[in-house]
Write a structure and sequence with these properties.
Elements lengths: L8 E6 L6 H12 L3 E3 H11 L2 H11 L6 H12 L8 E4 L5 H13 L3 E8 L2 H9 L1 E3 L6 E3 L26 H25 L3 E6 L5 H14 L2
Parallel strand pairs: 1-3, 1-4, 2-3, 4-7
Antiparallel strand pairs: 5-6
Length: about 230
């Protein structure tokens, strides 16, 4: 993260589970030439590193407990202090709580950085089909969707002929609970960032066009909107 003189800008991706945040973040990383900072990836990397913070996080996750805002904020701040974030970065999966949002805004203001919030709006019925329709191959890792990209033979991987599986968190009952949790916990964070007035905001239809087309539109907006 740069000092107050730096031109850094945070692009904060918002959207419910299945809205395509991860896909868009990867495409925008190439378009804008700034790093993609995802808390999920950082948690896994930190656990693999097995340093003091990584061991604490592993104990919490193994015990089925949530990682506190304090630990998440600390981890994100360390990541944003690296040289590759000096010109900007894409935040995916952070902030998730009001406490995280308040800390992020304070940090960005202190460092003289601005932020641009992008909300990927997708109908929940589409999200349920996207997620509940996913099937993965446990052998080669290929992913299919029974509605949008079905395998040639139902339940069988096109690449290695192994039986396809459904992840536990892709079951419809679980998806509906995740969407309810998003509305209850994460949607208020979006409202806070909009009302806070410290950054710019745009809402983008996350399902009307191909991911690459959507990413190009966001990339253009990120360069124009102040």
């Amino acid at each position: 993260m740069p000092d107050a003189k730096g031109p850094a800008r945070a692009l904060i991706l918002f959207g419910p589970p299945g809205s395509g945040k991860g896909t868009q973040a990867k495409l925008l990383k190439e378009c804008l030439a700034i790093p993609h900072v995802a808390t999920g990836d950082m948690l896994r990397e930190r656990i693999q590193r097995a340093d003091d913070l990584g061991l604490v996080i592993k104990r919490l996750i193994d015990a089925g407990e949530l990682v506190s805002d304090e630990l998440i904020n600390r981890m994100v701040e360390e990541r944003l202090s690296l040289p590759d974030c000096e010109k900007g970065f894409i935040l995916d999966g952070y902030p998730r709580t009001l406490g995280q949002a308040e800390t992020l805004c304070q940090t960005l203001r202190r460092l003289g950085a601005s932020w641009f919030v992008v909300h990927l709006k997708v109908d929940y019925n589409i999200i349920i089909r996207r997620l509940a329709g996913r099937r993965f191959c446990p052998q080669c890792g290929a992913v299919f969707n029974v509605y949008f990209q079905p395998p040639s033979r139902p339940g069988v991987c096109d690449l290695c002929q192994s039986a396809l599986l459904t992840r536990d968190d892709d079951r419809e009952s679980v998806i509906r609970r995740r969407l309810e949790a998003y509305e209850a916990q994460t949607r208020p964070v979006l409202d806070f960032l909009i009302k806070d007035g410290g950054g710019s905001f745009v809402e983008v239809d996350g399902a009307s066009e191909a991911p690459a087309v959507i990413a190009q539109r966001i990339c253009e907006l990120a360069r124009i909107v102040k």
